[in-house]
């Protein structure tokens, strides 16, 4: 358990340096804003950490012509409801650091992004994904047996970057023995194509085979992206989660317990390898 | 009737598709406001590219006469919500929440196919719709 805690803590402390710049065409004032730098937790969500970015940038845009703030990386609008680490693994994996993002207040891409009116929207999204994860692991029994204050503890632990507070409750959701053993592994695969569009894949995968053998990451991918694994094309992809490329022999259940995001899902990105890349 | 028979009866050819219902509607109305749902480019004309969903009201949401619909796997939750709103004559500005397992609300950009794979049973996916946040 001591070793587990070290890994969980390491994952929790993963951070990404980000440089925010206001979109050039949206600068309304004579003076141009300085870029804004932040070290953001991988496990958090952009709307929870960008209050200061908003305050810094809003002074430079047309006060009569702006809407909700949204972020973009190299033409790709960033979905606020994905954890920051997932967005970075998906789009910024090969980017230099700091990760350079563009801040927008105009032309909200309605087709691609959901609106985020306030932090309550992030909370209700987060809780919903958490419930879905528990529906897969424990038929929802772990989360339903909690009190409302436990839910609040999880949320404020995440929002305020308090590891011990979050895990004091999350450990019940991660219970994996006897009656409470995981039924299925909550995971989402983000399969990116060359055009940088991606599809999200979610399937039912049990932690172990009927033979009692642990299901590995490779097995999980066999189920989730059968086309790729049948054609032997998996090695054309980086399999990335939490910024690392785990061995395909890693047991999926170990990953679920140690590498899941706070929403209790494994978010695994498949990024095409660039030609000539070793 | 056994579950098997019930399933077979339900999957007869007469199950209406959302797409057909929407097409019929846009034929009968000439307004340009009907939201055309862009069909995803990944949709293939395969027999397994569609799944059956069962729509049930929760709270004070009105009942739909037709509960069972066939939808493309690539259809998003938001698309199904838009369809229900039109069907039960809600204003586009009103919100509608869709729940799985009467417990969680998938985000609007979630594809029906993946929810069906994880939470469908007996060949169909039950979705509860509600005008206020019913669960959670």
From TrEMBL, chain A:
It is a peripheral membrane protein. It comes from the Eukaryota. Its main location: cytoplasm. InterPro entries: Atg5, ATG5_HBR, Atg5_HR, ATG5_UblA, Atg5_UblA_dom_sf, ATG5_UblB. Keywords: Acetylation, Apoptosis, Autophagy, Cytoplasm, Immunity, Isopeptide bond, Membrane, Ubl conjugation. The keyword Cytoplasm applies. GO terms for cellular component: Atg12-Atg5-Atg16 complex; autophagosome; mitochondria-associated endoplasmic reticulum membrane contact site; phagophore; phagophore assembly site membrane. One of its GO terms (molecular function) is Atg8-family ligase activity. Residues 119-175 form the Autophagy protein ATG5 alpha-helical bundle region domain. Residues 11-105 form the Autophagy protein ATG5 UblA domain. The keyword Membrane applies. Residues 184-270 form the Autophagy protein ATG5 UblB domain. GO terms for biological process: apoptotic process; autophagosome assembly; autophagy of mitochondrion; cellular response to nitrogen starvation; immune system process; negative regulation of programmed cell death; piecemeal microautophagy of the nucleus. It is found in: Cytoplasm; Preautophagosomal structure membrane. Conjugated with ATG12. Forms a conjugate with ATG12. Part of the minor complex composed of 4 sets of ATG12-ATG5 and ATG16L1 (400 kDa); this complex interacts with ATG3 leading to disruption of ATG7 interaction and promotion of ATG8-like proteins lipidation. Forms an 800-kDa complex composed of ATG12-ATG5 and ATG16L2. The ATG12-ATG5 conjugate interacts with RAB33A; this interaction is bridged by ATG16L1 and promotes ATG12-ATG5-ATG16L1 complex recruitment to phagophores. Interacts with TECPR1; the interaction is direct and does not take place when ATG16L1 is associated with the ATG5-ATG12 conjugate. Belongs to the ATG5 family. May play an important role in the apoptotic process, possibly within the modified cytoskeleton. Its expression is a relatively late event in the apoptotic process, occurring downstream of caspase activity. Plays a crucial role in IFN-gamma-induced autophagic cell death by interacting with FADD. This is Autophagy protein 5.
TrEMBL record, chain B:
Keywords: Acetylation, Autophagy, Cytoplasm, Isopeptide bond, Membrane, Ubl conjugation pathway. One of its GO terms (biological process) is glycophagy. InterPro entries: Atg12, Ubiquitin-like_domsf. It is a peripheral membrane protein. One of its GO terms (molecular function) is Atg8-family ligase activity. Pfam families: APG12. Forms a conjugate with ATG5. Belongs to the ATG12 family. PANTHER family: AUTOPHAGY PROTEIN 12 (PTHR13385), UBIQUITIN-LIKE PROTEIN ATG12 (PTHR13385:SF0). Ubiquitin-like protein involved in autophagic vesicle formation. This is Ubiquitin-like protein ATG12. The lineage of its organism: Eukaryota, Metazoa, Spiralia, Lophotrochozoa, Mollusca.
